[in-house]
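Budget justification, computational time. The allocation requested in the original proposal was used primarily to generate structure tokens for proteins on the priority list. As evidence of use, we reproduce two of the resulting records. The first is shown immediately below.
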Amino acid sequence: MTCFFVMSLLFGLTFGQTASLCAPSEYIIHVEKRECAYCLAINTTICAGFCMTRDSNGKKLLLKSALSQNVCTYKEMLYQTALIPGCPHHTIPYYSYPVAVSCKCGKCNTDYSDCVHEKVRTNYCTKPQKLCNV
């Protein structure tokens, strides 16, 4: 029984990432500026899904490298720019946003991701809505 447990543990540590379900997912971003007449609903893709993590309760028994807490994050992304309609001439009517091309399970990079789990915020418009399909 002990041999089976050890082999299962080693297999899980070695091949655990292959069971991850991290992939680009469709998402709608709502963008509005105070000066502009409309809210823009942008169809884009973000990285979302499940990544295998390892319980840190066994940190005294396992190597530090075996205690990963991975998140679903961008492997490859590009930026697109949308024009917010109904903006006066003195306002910059452009909004740039990331588009996930491919995703991976890995450490959260604070250069382009918010790595803090925060309360769920409602993503909505307070102005009339225009849809942008990019």
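The second record produced under the same allocation is shown here.
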Amino acid sequence: QVVFALNQTLLQQESLRAGSFQIPYTTEDLIKHYNCGDLSSIIFNHDTSQVPNFINATLPAHERITAQEIDSYFRQELIYKRNERMGKRVKDLLEEYPAKSFFFAFGAGHFMGNNTVIDVLRREGYEVEHTPAGQAI
């Protein structure tokens, strides 16, 4: 699986470099949607947008199964579990120091797809509010 993942990542990067494959959104698109608090945008709605897309319709059936297994592993280990740990750390700090004020800043990857840090905190009963760029806190 590791060799397959590395090969697919390299093929994808070579396609990007050659211009035969394009990412459907730019970094500027990500920044614009993030700053506007538009986290439900199609850009932020892909669970696997942080990892290479290994699932390709042109793959043979046995390789497609491997790709789906790797994609599922990445989604679970690199996205869901990471966000769960980070959300719990925020919750623990808030509960341990209730008289203190906190400011938490996360990279955009922690807001993508399902089971985000915000989802974890809301499940724990917290209200999370977006602060737009340029707004005083």
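A brief technical remark on that second record: Helices lie at 2-18, 27-35, 61-96, 117-123.
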